[in-house]
Fold each of these.
Amino acid sequence: MEKEKIRLRALTKEDAKTSWKWRNNDDVKYFYSGHPFPVNVEKEEAWLSKLIDSDIPLASFGIVEIETDKFIGMSFLKNINLIHRNAEIAIFIGDQNATGKGFAKEATLKTIDFAFNELNLNRIYLVVQDDNFNAIKLYEKCNFVKEAVLREANFKKGKYVDVIMMSILRSEYT
């Protein structure tokens, strides 16, 4: 078994001092951020406060590199539906020095594990832009299956881009 490189923890208001910078990064805004507007630290603090005060239908986690104890990203289970036993997953590594080291895969698997084993969900789904090749490769390595293409669903940098919907079922997670 591989040595754990990251841990998931609760987000804190203090995290806004780091995460607001990530959300102003052009790559993060293009691939992940829901809106194209600049984010100031006050807006980030307000957003994080809402997340911190919420549980169901949202579970949010800070991703921390164990070796350095550094906050490097976030993962979320959104739209948790306890009747139909499903939720949407979203994840990003905001610290550019922490990309390409396997942290995103481990964080994805830990978030999925939480969903299946702590919340007793049956299906986790996600949406990803079809030009986010690294994320698609990651999700496929984590056994997500492509379900649909949402044609021209996002408007980014002056053009429409397709979005892929993917999912994993409890029975596919080992």
Note: The chain has a mean pLDDT of 94.
Amino acid sequence: MLPLSLTLFNTELSEDFGGIKGLEGCDADEIYSFLKTNSLFNWRLNHNFCEARAEAVSLLLDAAKIPHVKCWVMGAAFLKWGYVGALKNNWNYHVAIALPVENGLQVDWMVVDPSAANGPLLVEDWAASITLYSHSYYFLKDSGYYIFPGNQLFKKGWHKRRQRNFRWAMQGLIGISSLSYIGKAMLTFKKRQIREVTLKFMKVRGRMGDEGLFGQNHRGLTHA
């Protein structure tokens, strides 16, 4: 039988986050609004920078002690798990932050991704919304994972967060992928922009660490 959905949850690659305490739905809305309007992020950059933005967002949420994970979605053809199955925008994969949100007696995972949605979405709805044709696979990973090794996608082989990943994330915020030939050349000419966005990011991160979840008044995240 054909799947009823464009996307399927993959238990093999996903991790278990049972027992995590959820946020309120209004908190997820406010976090989305903060991210969408924050000048650190250029959400219109559609190619090659989703892992950089997801890492930058994750570091900010870590500073504010906001629970979250990273949600990944991949086309079946990219995973070599079928002849068809692809994402929109010619993406092989996409990643964004997912927040645990309380829903009665259960916790729902809501993705906050201003690059692809107009508000927080349930993980399966988010994955389906960026799937061009069936089917894709989505799964949840610890926020400390930055990216996966090429052509060796398995559960425990992912590259973890470290200083080099931080530099990649800062470069990605201004549209530089230093793993490409063009990106390596851009590093030479955009040293000032990289330094500026890094300093601005550290300022926002420091303030979120000092003020907590929604600032000293527990509401209203503010920008740099």
Note: Helices lie at 25-37, 50-63, 123-129, 163-173, 181-189, 191-211.
Amino acid sequence: MSVRAQLLVMAVVAFALLFILRLVRRRKLQGKYALLWVGVGLFLFAFALVPDVLVPIADWVGVAYEPAVFFLAAIAFLFLMVVHFSFELSRSEERTRTLAEEVALLKARMDKSDPPPDRTPTAPVDDVPED
């Protein structure tokens, strides 16, 4: 990788890390996900500093084209992220359904125990306008 490409990758990663930290500070991103993405950013930053680390990994895996190892790792990571987010979404949907059922039961119980209040408007005698 050329020096220009290394600097570009480092600049993009630094910008991404600053963006992640901004999201955390504004409470738009939870800490557990921020740690994950900061870890990925630091890994990419280290990769930009030492790009030749792919050569021995590619030789060990048996891949002739070194950047393919990087793309393979990125695809595997993204696949794991999709599976994790699917799990979180399923769990969140289950919790939402359970909470909606509990609210409906509580509302039904409250409606059963307390009759609805009389909705006829009443005004105190002192507030009646005089002609």
Note: The chain has two domains: 1-49, 63-110.
